[in-house]
Amino acid sequence: MSNIFSRLIQTSRRRSPWVYRINAGSCNGCDIEVAPCFSPRYDGEQIGAVLQGSPKHTDILLISGPITLRTQEMVKDVYQQIPSPKAVIALGSCPASGNVFHGSPTIVGSAEAVIPVDLYVPGCPPRPQAILEAIQKASVMLEKGETRSQREVSHE
Amino acid sequence: MNNWWINAILALLFWPGLLSGALFGWFLLWMSRKFIARLQGRQGPPFYQPFFDFWKLIGKKTIIPNGVNPVLFYALPIIGLISIIFALALLPVPGSSGISFEGDLVLLIYLIEMPVLMDVIAGYVTRSVYAQVGATREAILTIAYNLPFLGALIALAVRLHSFKLATFAAAPISIATILAAVALFVALLAQLKVNPFSIPNAEQEIVAGIHVEYNGLPLALFELTHALETSLLVGLISILFIGPFTSIWMKLLIFFVVAVVVILLTNITAAGTARLKVQHAFKFYWTWGIAATVLVVAAALIL
Ligand code: SF4
Questions:
Q1: Is B77 exposed, middle or buried (0-12, 13-18, 19+ CB in 10 A)?
Q2: Which end is more exposed in chain B, N or C (fewer Cβ atoms within 10 Å of the end residue's Cβ)?
Q3: ipTM, two decimals
């Protein structure tokens, strides 16, 4: 009985990824590419994805930009406000390497240094198809318990 | 006596209570989302979406915000849910083994108000500015939309000389019934918080409104309450039209068809309008709501 129950919850994690995004100093290019994911052409609602306004309702965090020093604390704060299990997707080249902002004294330059990232979407900016694919992959990871939030908790 | 208890439990848990109410409510909510998506040229969510949304929330960890009483945090959605289940059990749907007595309409109206009240309290309790703004708006809107809602129900009760819901469901369709259904529909828009009256949960404006701090299990309970509320309020309009039919299958069919039509009309309105300000919504209900009420009462007394 409890087996069926946990199976049901796992499936629903894949079927219902709710998305929240933070702009951590991005040039806005990546954020503009998120909007079409929920427009008629790509329609993320088909895989159950919905943009949420509150981090408390979120399963998947989209983070864009090179993490400026001023946003660093807020990114951590938002991440902690998300109830686990949660997945983090880094959008574009900025959170991976700092990209064109590399070497700037005002950025951290790596999302990994601030919060545990599960998936990177390459591109500057990435295409909406790639973002949707990442959302779908992240929801499968949530189902299988493979996100870093889930694995790190189970190690404790 | 024993039989009465079994019937009451059946009505609370299965038909028309928790189980069928939730399934029917989820179906109606899915239809709303699908229909809006189709109107916007999108594909929309698959059939089982609200069901999985609910279970996913159940499976999430719950974070209780700092400085919020945990008992209160959990109690509010539970009280709202229990009241709406009892309200559903009173609904005289075809084939219901339900509880029915003289005056159950009054009890139903009280029980419908409970989740709204819990919402407002929840907004204040969670100590978020957005939730407080949402709660204030919801409280104001309650005063507004209850005018046509109560007006229509009271007019019907006066016409049928009864405060019993079963009489409503057995009454023949007349002009008064149709006008009452229209008045209930106008109130329904605000009760379901869809455009143009999506004022208390205005996303993009006050984030997620009242439920902004809610998460995990309590949020799931609020969502379930919303699904049950949808099936109850839509069902309340539907039962006005099942009177003239004798066979139970015919009654069920009409019940279902009217519910679907009501949801489609709601969403055409929602997709075709923009959100009003709270003062404009209030004005709308206190002018057109009063007009509708007067019309229904006049039709009920004269025709
Ligand atoms: S990856 Fe490119 S598009 Fe995205 S925020 Fe960085 S510079 Fe802008």
A1: buried
A2: N
A3: 0.88
